[in-house]
Amino acid sequence: MREEMPRAVTTICNALQEQIEHGLLPPGSKLPAERKLSEVFDTTRITLREALVQLEARGLIYREERRGWFISPPRLAYDLMRRSHFHAMVQAQGRVPATQVISARLQPASAVICGLLQLPALSSVIQICRARRIDERLVLYVEHYLNPEYFPQILELDLNQSLTELYARHYDIRYGQVRFEMVPTALPVEAAGALKVSIGSPGLRIARVNHDQRGRLIDCDLEYWRHDAIHVSAVVADI
Amino acid sequence: MREEMPRAVTTICNALQEQIEHGLLPPGSKLPAERKLSEVFDTTRITLREALVQLEARGLIYREERRGWFISPPRLAYDLMRRSHFHAMVQAQGRVPATQVISARLQPASAVICGLLQLPALSSVIQICRARRIDERLVLYVEHYLNPEYFPQILELDLNQSLTELYARHYDIRYGQVRFEMVPTALPVEAAGALKVSIGSPGLRIARVNHDQRGRLIDCDLEYWRHDAIHVSAVVADI
DNA sequence: TTACCTATCTGGACTAGACCAGCGCTATTT
DNA sequence: AAATAGCGCTGGTCTAGTCCAGATAGGTAA
């Protein structure tokens, strides 16, 4: 009869998880340095890091490139049915949104985008790349691709605000049918860079293809979320 | 002017990804042993492993516990709107489904399940745990929790088939409103064990709360998918 | 033929270090 | 007071191994 001895990684995970769940380490607070922690748990930094990566996978902690490890705040509820735009959604949940434009320009459409927007080959599209925060924390990198036909001069407007509101105010365009595609995957380099996370961090890719109130295919978004930042919900009736 | 030298891990990832995408390593085929690969890329096993874990995060490869690394097959399309049961969905996409019952019994409901099914404290529920395969590969671990009031004697039926069909045939119950909740997270131990993956592998948790055609809350499922096995889609009109 | 045993191969887990690059604070300079 | 240069600390990346346990396949005995 021998005792079941759990792996070191598991032991560390459980210890940290317990501390987090009992509120000793509040959301947003910083963990001690990896070297400190590896001393505390009497193990190698490699082993300790493996435990941290696990907790990251569970969504309990996250890292900021070369700054340290932090306790994850609660996930944002993302309801596919009661969709509103980012700012409204975040504020409705009592949190503080922020948006920052990374780039915005007219450019040749890639094959993928031509497909999504049903444009002929060699079309031009308006690409808008933005990074978005909840309570200061970078959580979302989005690439918007707009059919330029419907949005003349949009590049001259302030794109730090909600596109949904710009559409309504300047173009009288509102969202009608929307198609979502969700894929759990690693963040690609552009997204990882914009969100200041190490490349290859787990993420959730949500692609949206949007029609307007008149059924025209107006734009699509590629959203890359930190995987621990949201939980998606949907209510479907009468399948 | 110095050359930008990419990290070893990135180099390995790109090399393998290129081989995979050009079909030299077809879906389901096995990669060489880690030790072999680390020789091929002239690096440590630890570094090589890090690259493999990255490709796993991207969903390009997966591992089977102590058996090796394999190329991931295409993702299953999981449409929230046009929902059918697992077997029908898999077959409709030209693939071969299989289900295996792990356990099925009447037991006291946990607090979480009481909440989801709106049952009073200390209620009993029928728990059915199953593992499901696509083309032989284990991809999904599900825990079903049924309100026993609506499903007398169900434990005496063959639970390897579709529950949806059992409901219809024996109880005249069909799904009406369904609520989905999706959270990217690491697979918990039960799921990892059932799917024979190493604990802490990335996964997608989909919780469903199901009403029947008469609006009664009949059951809920906790689905744990291998994160690289599905992509979820939904079409929403008139937001 | 069948059942079992065993050697070998695989991934899983871990040790004990090293060097580098970016962040942030401090002390200096302007 | 503001700009800057320096430096220490942090995570990021990598080396070169070890030991262990499950999976597999080949051979041996019933």
Using brief descriptors, characterize the structure shown.
homodimer, 239 residues, alpha+beta, Arc Repressor Mutant, subunit A, Chorismate lyase, 2 domains, six-stranded antiparallel beta sheet, two-stranded antiparallel ribbon, 7 helices, 10 strands, DNA-binding
Describe this structure in words.
Two copies of one chain form a homodimer. Helices cover 27% and strands 36% of the residues of chain A. In chain A, the strands form three sheets. In chain A, strands 4-5-6-9-8-7 form a six-stranded antiparallel beta sheet. In chain A, strands 1-2 form a two-stranded antiparallel ribbon. In chain A, strand 1 and strand 2 (68-71) form a beta hairpin. The first copy, chain A, is built from seven helices and ten strands. Chain A folds into two domains: 3-71, Orthogonal Bundle (Arc Repressor Mutant, subunit A), CATH 1.10.10; 76-233, 3-Layer(aba) Sandwich (Chorismate lyase), CATH 3.40.1410.10. By secondary structure, chain A is α+β, with helices and mostly antiparallel strands. In chain A, helix 1 (8-21) crosses helix 3 (45-58) and helix 2 (34-40) packs across helix 3. The radius of gyration of chain A is 21 Å and the shape is elongated. The A-B interface holds A 10, 13, 46, 54, 57-59, 75, 80-83, 175-186, 199-202, 204, 227-228, 231-239 and B 10, 46, 54, 57-59, 75, 80-83, 175-186, 199-202, 204, 227-228, 231-239. Strand 7 (175-186) of chain A pairs antiparallel with strand 10 of chain B. Chain A binds a DNA duplex (30 and 30 nucleotides) through residues 7-9, 33-35, 43-47, 49-50, 63-69, 198. Chains A, B: InterPro entries: Bact_HTH_transcr_reg (IPR050679), Chorismate_lyase_/UTRA_dom_sf (IPR028978), Tscrpt_reg_HTH_GntR (IPR000524), UTRA (IPR011663), WH-like_DNA-bd_sf (IPR036388), WH_DNA-bd_sf (IPR036390).
